[in-house]
Amino acid sequence: MKTLLTSMIALTAVGPAFADDVAYDVDGVAHTGYYAAADNDADGLVVLVHDWNGIDQFERDQADRMAEEGYDVFVVDMFGADTPTGTMEENRAASSELGEDREKMRMLLQAGLDQAEAQSGAEGMVVAGYCFGGGVALEMARSDFADRATGFATFHGSLGTPEGQGYTGEAAPILIMHGGGDTSQTLDNLHRLTVELERAGATYTVEIYAGAPHGFTEPGESYQERAAEESWEAFNDFLEERLGG
């Protein structure tokens, strides 16, 4: 059986109808997103939020794959040119800054959503993210602009809710794809989140993949083929449900 990474390489060789970096400015800081367009009329728009090291080939490959499934995809740059990433210390500092400044996080996300909608004329938007980006997707689900999306999804994402925030039953459905072996965001963290969502009357679905560690979709030591493939299938089902693909 081919691994997910092999399939990604093969699919990327075919390529979406159009894909390129997109430069934009947020409060005087240069940002660079990535846009991949579906062939013909898109079934909807997917906004992706990167993990803690910013946009790299992984996010581009995932965006290309989604475009080949029939969706326009925009990867938001949550850091910008002024924020160094690459080392563990830099990645931690970049993601921690926004974790501590939720107003800035929301502002950067809204700027990315505006860019996504400027690139695509597709109706309906699902916001999804990986690791740090999954936490950003959940931040939007708790925000006063949650109604811009028809669904939210998180792959091995940050699950905590900051003090003073909370969910309502009015936000669009949430898909949570989580590794049972995640020692960063544990099953206890996941349980606390589901209790919050249940009490709020939110619509949510949780997928747990046995033994999968944090970052199970990403090439490297944490990659788990079964969890990566099953979460991809679950996400595609969610997109079809929420965007009518």
Overview of the molecule:
The protein has 245 residues and is α/β, with parallel strands linked by helices. The chain contains seven helices and eight strands; from the N terminus they run H-E-E-E-H-E-H-H-E-H-E-E-H-E-H. It has helices spanning 4-14, 57-68, 88-100, 102-119, 132-141, 187-200, 225-243; strands at residues 18-26, 29-37, 45-49, 72-76, 125-130, 151-155, 174-179, 204-209. An eight-stranded mixed beta sheet has the order 1-2-4-3-5-6-7-8, with helices on both faces. Helix 1 (4-14) packs across helix 2 (57-68). The protein is globular and about 40 Å long.
The main β sheet shows up as: 8 strands, mixed
Low-confidence stretches: 1-13
Task: Please state the overall shape, judged from the principal axes of the Cα atoms.
Answer: globular
The CATH C-level class name: Alpha Beta
Order of helices and strands: HEEEHEHHEHEEHEH
Number of domains: 1
* Percent of residues in β-strands: 15-25%
* CATH topology tier name: Rossmann fold
- The assigned structural class equals alpha/beta
Biggest sheet, strands in spatial order?
A: 1-2-4-3-5-6-7-8
N→C terminal distance: 27 Å
Q: What CATH architecture do you see?
A: 3-Layer(aba) Sandwich
Mean pLDDT level: 93
SS element count, helices: 7
Tell me the radius of gyration. 17 Å
Total strands: the figure is 8
Which labels suit this protein?
Rossmann fold; disordered N terminus; 245 residues; single chain; alpha/beta; eight-stranded mixed beta sheet; 21% strand; 7 helices
Short description:
This protein is of the alpha/beta class. It is built from seven helices and eight strands. Helix 1 packs across helix 2.
